[in-house]
Amino acid sequence: MPHDAIGAHAARARSAPAVWGNVPPSNPNFTGRKAMLAELHQRLLRDKGAAVVPQSLHGLGGVGKTSMAVQYLYRQMADYDVVWWISAERTAQISASLVELAPHLDVPTGPDVASTVGCVLEALRAGQPYANWLLVFDNAESPEAIRPFLPAGGPGTVLITSRNPHWAEIARPFEVDVFIREESKRVLRERSPDIDDTDADRLAAALGDLPLAIEQAAAWHSETGMPVAEYLQLLEEKRVELLRETALPRARHPVIAAWNVSLDQLQAENPAAYQLLQICSLYAPEPIPRALFGRRPRGPVTPELDPVLGDPIRLGQAIREISRYSLARVHRHETTLLMHRLVQTAVSSRMTDDERSVMLRAAHLLLASNDPNAPDNAQHWQRYSSLHPHVLVSGAERSDEGWVRNLVVNEVIYLLRWGDYESGLELARTAHGTWSQKLGQDHPQTLQMARWLGFLLFSMGRYQEAADLNSTVLEAYRRTMGPDAQDTTDALGNVAIDHRVRGAFSEALTLSESVHRQYLRLLGPDDPETLRAAHNLGVSLRLVGDFARARDLDRRTWTGLTQIYGHDNVTSLNTWLAYVVDTRELGQYGEALAQHREMAEQIDQLFGHDIPLRLSCRRHLAVTLRKAGRHEEALDAAERANAALRRRHGMSNPESICSALELSVQLRDAGRHQSALALGMETWHLYTQTYGRMHPHTLSAAVNMAVTFRCTGNAAAARRIDILALRGFVTALGETHPSTLICRTNLASDHYALGDAAIAHDLDTETLRRSREVFDEDHPSTLACAANLAMDLRTLGHTDQATTLHTDTQERLSRKLGSSHPAVTQAADWEHRANCDIDPMPL
User: Fold this and answer.
1) Residue 339, φ and ψ in degrees, nearest 5
2) What is the 3-state secondary structure (H, E, C) of 220-235?
3) Spatial contact of 369 and 310, defined as CB atoms under 8 Å apart
4) Partners of 93 in the beta sheet?
5) What angle do CA 407, 411, 412 make, to 5 degrees?
6) Are residues 722 and 823 in the same domain?
7) Got the DSSP string for 339-380?
8) Range in 157-166, 601-610, 816-825, 829-838 with the lowest mean pLDDT
9) What is the torsional sign of CA 467, 472, 473, 479?
10) Domain stops at, among 369, 395, 414
11) What are 490-520's pLDDT values in tens digits?
């Protein structure tokens, strides 16, 4: 390892920053630039403690701006607490990177991505929790694109790399020029000691001292041993050719010409390796998995490439040929290839239209051959992640191959499961629009993408767009395939989801039952599609309050899914979570908590990232902990879940709203009534904006808020809210829905707090009767109502009756929840009425 690389490695081992994010690997062949690195260090030191004025490394493509920035970081890493590398070509990349930084700074999250970015920038400005930070914006397009993402002062520093020289308005420009001649000659002689000083000087002059060209020429000479005079003649011939290529900027001619010499040689000696490069030039300028070329594509590519693809020996030989000439950097430990953008330009500019068409088809077929066709399986997510940028840049959605289009669908599903809704939405919209034009709006794959696009929109809370699309898709299937086709049935299931969103739970249940029956008839009870329909039926059953039937169905569905997919699949785990929620809502808190802890641990071990399933599991765990009486642990879990969801999806996402509602309840239970009330009101407003004022979920948020009002001494406000909510529940869900009964229980407590014990008594008496029928005599919600009724009776002077009911209720609560449960302790003192909260079921 060169001395500089060893020193950098040792420095990192001694004192790595507390936060070190996304920094590219160091270049072991980095040479020269000592004076520039020293000057850059002095500039950054001089700027510390002042208003943040970035240093912008700018210069031509190929001068090594990024390499120099990377080298600086590895040399000086011990000087910083935080080093964060940001790919700055697109605004979305910058935002995503800063959001990723947020948890490392322990900053509060905002209602959306923009707010979270603002919190991160404020934390950097304030120097909390780290004062000594360095942000690197790599390959920034313009000052206008970067300006909104710069901290407004603070103790840290910012470094920018860009081909754009116009940075004087917001940064101190630092031009990275070509090598000085001695640096060029040193690089050439280090790789090829037989080059004398005169030839090195001639070669450096011909290449304009451009670092990337020098590095490539050094590799060429090292591998071929061609005399410098002969190489210079070839280089001049390529320059003349390039002068005719008006599309290529003259500034790129030295490096393009140098590569064209190598490309000519590679094309002649190893056509397969050359064609491999052509394919790579059509992918993203990001690491390309070597395994991409290790699987034979579905169908022939070219006579030269066909014997190489899928043959590890021949493939290895081709990759070694590419690496010999420094046409791509091979990261052996990461098993990836990386092409510089200029190499891609050089290779791409040589292709004819016919060659480009052939190689683009090959690029798409290779991507498709690497599709595991299992986007629900987390074991394959790393592969889908590595394929994603190349799917985008190569325009895979434009392929004429059905296998390639299937990969695009699977990428959308992966992004949905992973929780990158914005990227999934972008790809789904692009593919759906392209296929609608190329294949027709009624083509099966166009409609398949439309269904997933609808589910993405649903997951993001963009409900009207989802409903409109789902309705269009259903009509298309009915028109083209008939009412009894499987795809039509599946589309009907999506429309059932839209009914849930509207609050029409009974109608949704009717549709879900119809879809499930149709799948049973078409495919039988054990088919994956039937089991998926069964899971969705369970969702509808929970929403109408039929938890017993939902639990029985979910248990059977979960068993069937694990037999097909195993215990570690997202599909299986989703239904397990549903089964645990059923168990909890049936009042079996201890059993639910034991299973929930086991599931949360398993999901953490499997994913280790805040995917939607993990976040949903954590959100529900906070509820289960609260129900089981673990209030301190529940509050911590609720705060963590809410912060993670807001950070991941923003405050307006449906899951984020649910988590905020749960946190407001936990804050109230912890005695933090004002904070609970403020968050509860905010959450109610979000529910109103998202679903409408009379949606059952909005009414649930209102009921929970009313409890907090009563706890703050404003029982009159609580009563007004609960009266309106009760009317809404009766209209939407009926007199005996669990949410209706809980609202009645709380309304009785409002009256009691206002001195109307008689009204409270009448409400509690009727609610207890119905609760015993809907739940059972020992359900915690039933016993909460019974405990409150005992207080009504005592206040009204019916002491014996009150004592009998109170004693019976406490014994039942103790058996049901355990003697140490806070609800049991509270029920014993005759002082506190039981508050009942509503936890909205997932849609």
Assistant:
1) -105, 135
2) HHHHHCCCHHHHHHHH
3) no
4) none
5) 120
6) yes
7) --HHHHHHHHHT--HHHHHHHHHHHHHHHHHT--S-TT-GGG
8) 157-166
9) positive
10) 369
11) 999 999 999 999 999 999 999 999 999 999 9
